[in-house]
């Protein structure tokens, strides 16, 4: 938990530097986009920071998928966004912000080995994941495809926050970025996944 807290603190410090241009403003509107998996820990810190440094700023936060947020940045509908990298759009240059380790989430009484699980082992479990069009789902499926396995996903959920509730109810096992795991894990446990790449977060330019 201490290592995770240090990573999050550093990520917030990097974001504060990116928002330095807003610090001299006293009034006005600011727009900010963020992927749903990172919004839980990032947005409250951002709001608190602006309240202290620029209380006259009205902040509009867009939470959504990376593709939509990238489109809004390109169209200049958003001043800044934290999205997953890389992007297939050649116009986008990313400034790396953070790596999100991927972890498994299971009911607390699930019989799991005392070691990190492999993606090939996840193929034998019922999974609760976002729909196939979701970037997080595509990343997980790509890792499985590279290892020659197909995942069993009987339940698809658009909202990340609902996934943990369904896992607690016994609907299956989930794979989430570590920062998206709910802080209250009553009835749940996390486990490491050995061969699933970290998810990259970046600021598109």
SSE blueprint:
Elements: H1 2-18, E1 28-34, H2 36-53, E2 57-63, H3 66-74, E3 80-85, E4 94-100, E5 102-107, H4 119-122, E6 126-129, H5 135-146, E7 152-156, H6 160-168, E8 173-177, E9 188-192, E10 199-204
Parallel strand pairs: 1-2, 1-3, 6-7, 6-8
Antiparallel strand pairs: 3-10, 4-10, 5-8, 5-9
Short note summarizing the structure:
With 205 residues, this protein is of the alpha/beta class. It has six helices and ten strands, in the order αβαβαβββαβαβαβββ. The longest helix has 18 residues, at 36-53.
Describe the structure.
The protein has 205 residues and is α/β, with parallel strands linked by helices. Helix content is 34%, strand content 28%. It is built from six helices and ten strands. The protein has helices at residues 2-18, 36-53, 66-74, 119-122, 135-146, 160-168; strands at residues 28-34, 57-63, 80-85, 94-100, 102-107, 126-129, 152-156, 173-177, 188-192, 199-204. The strands form two sheets. It has a five-stranded mixed β-sheet with strand order 2-1-3-10-4, with helices on both faces. Strand 6 (126-129), helix 5 (135-146) and strand 7 form a beta-alpha-beta unit. Helix 1 packs across helix 2. It is globular and about 55 Å long.
Features:
205 residues; 28% strand; alpha/beta; five-stranded mixed sheet
């Amino acid at each position: 938990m201490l290592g995770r807290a240090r990573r999050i603190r550093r990520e917030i410090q990097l974001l504060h530097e990116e928002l330095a241009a807003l610090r001299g403003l006293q009034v006005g509107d600011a727009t900010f986009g963020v992927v749903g998996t990172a919004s839980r820990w990032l947005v409250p810190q951002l709001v608190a920071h602006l309240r202290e440094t620029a209380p006259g700023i009205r902040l509009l936060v867009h939470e959504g998928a990376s593709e939509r947020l990238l489109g809004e940045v390109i169209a200049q509908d958003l001043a800044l966004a934290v999205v997953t990298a890389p992007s297939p759009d050649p116009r986008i240059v990313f400034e790396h912000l953070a790596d999100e380790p991927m972890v498994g989430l299971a009911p607390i009484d699930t019989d799991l080995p005392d070691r990190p699980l492999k993606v090939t082992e996840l193929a034998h479990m019922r999974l609760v994941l976002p729909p196939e069009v979701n970037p997080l789902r595509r990343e997980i499926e790509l890792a499985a495809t590279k290892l020659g396995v197909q995942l069993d996903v009987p339940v698809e959920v658009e909202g990340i926050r609902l996934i943990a509730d369904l896992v607690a109810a016994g609907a299956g096992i989930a794979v989430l970025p570590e920062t998206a795991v709910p802080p209250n894990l009553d009835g749940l446990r996390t486990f490491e996944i050995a061969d699933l790449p970290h998810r990259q977060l970046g600021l598109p330019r």
